[in-house]
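Task: complex structure prediction.
Instruction: return structure tokens for all chains below.
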Amino acid sequence: MSVPLVTARGLVKRFGDFVAVDGIDFEIAAGEAFGFLGPNGAGKTSTMRMIAATSPLDGGELRVLGLDPAAEGSAIRARIGVVPQEDNLDMELTVAENLYIYGRYFDLPRRVIRRRIDELLDFAQLAERRDARVESLSGGMKRRLTIARGLMNDPELVLLDEPTTGLDPQARHALWDRLYRLKRRGVTLIITTHYMDEAEQLCDRLVVMDRGRIVAEGSPRDLIARYSTPEVVELRFRPEVDVGAPSRFADMAQRVEILPDRVLLYTGDADATVAKVEPMEELLDGFLVRRATLEDVFLHLTGRSLVD
Amino acid sequence: MATPLALRVVEAEARVYRRVWKGSVVTSFLNPVLYLLAMGVGLGSLVDRNLPDGVAGVGYLAFLAPGLLAATAMQTGAAEGAWKVMAGFKWRKTYQAVLATPVTIEALVLGVLTWAGVRVLMVTMVFAAVVVVFGVTSPVGALAAVLPAMLVGLATAAPVAGFTIRVDHDAGLTNLFRFGIVPMFLFSGTFFPVSQLPELLRPVAFAVPLFHGVEMARWAALGLAPAVSPVASVAYLLAWTVGGTWWAIRGFRRRLWR
Ligand SMILES: Nc1ncnc2c1ncn2[C@@H]1O[C@H](COP(=O)(O)OP(=O)(O)OP(=O)(O)O)[C@@H](O)[C@H]1O
Ligand SMILES: [Mg+2]
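Output:
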């Protein structure tokens, strides 16, 4: 790994007595796309805000771009782009005015701002809505504008807190494509998400967070290899059927997870598992075979599913 | 050279203001015209008939105009410190967006209050022009009255911003106006001399920043001797401004830096 752009040691965030981030360590290298994956309340946003120098640490050490957020927050913020979880655009202004004002906070020259606005409105596919009031935009358009705004200062590090929440599938894929292009230009990305497909698509490396702690770390593929079997057979039982104990499935797969709506059989040999499932077919609404995902990793690590 | 952080906030506020300036200019023009007509001319003709020597030696319109100028400055400062700040951290959440940029909390507060000062200046300049048209005082006298009015506006905006950042609902602001700003507007010597107040309340009036602004505005516009030395009044208003700014910065930090 080259020189780390962000280093955290024993990072802690508290709200009153409640510990939101409980002593986590991580390092993020320049040019990397790094993910924080975890369920609601895991501490992802709290961590992002500390990295963005908009929230004080309650413990541990943090360096961002080689700087100390407590002492040099303004200098850090000048060089990073922030896309917060909740859009906080100025609803009373137009699309272009939002970008303009934001650019002035970074003290960009007016000429540069005008050029960046043109580029970013194309990037966000909002060129036609340039003079529309933000109030009148759809949720997905607002999200895209918030992302464009975070890029106004041509940042070398971009923090995206659940960038695609609220976007339709098409817009999500368009955004992934754009983030991928940013990454190819050498921009470092830090992304939080609770969509495993997003993490798999975008992240070179990620940490899985749960209740303020990091429970696993690696590339998506590593994590799946380490914490899951390659394939999963999902069974959906008829509503009236009693699923029974995990031991019932013990000889069908290496590991079993019983969820409220389905049973997951983790197996290295899906064909063999399916052959053993077939005798109970009349008890089932259906079954399917799929490749393991980060969702399975999370389930294994925490015993809970990622999206509730 | 880099633009100071607080000035970037002022520039942004000015840009937002461009959306609403027309309506706002009409209001700041109509307000003094209506007040001076109704109270100064209308009510004033009754007052003057009963007081041949005038109020404090001048006609009621002349007595009222500088006081109302200072009182309007207070109201403008209060509105900037109240509704604007609540919109910033709660309704529009624009402060959260600003604080993700190089702008610091201190710069945000200084920028917000500087812009409040600019707004007070705009409103009082229009007011001063109207006062001149009403023939109350010379242009120089009216301009001179703008200075203490500015100070009153800032001495109000700063502590009101500090109050607003600490309340969670706009009901808190409604109460601030109901029990604070409006009584001060009415009883700080704007409409009648504080010597008319019950003896018990007179010291209270002296504690109100607006009272000092009213006295100085009358002194500047009409040459009426103020009840308190202007040096003491300026120091008092500066203390409110500086103390209020410090209190606002602490409140902003507690609310937005966590
Ligand atoms: N300002 C705050 N005051 C009190 N508690 C807070 C505050 N912000 C966050 N928390 C708590 O800290 C915990 C972590 O919150 P955080 O927003 O970091 O989680 P998250 O992983 O981003 O969750 P989500 O996926 O829902 O966005 C939660 O239990 C939350 O209730
Ligand atoms: Mg979050």
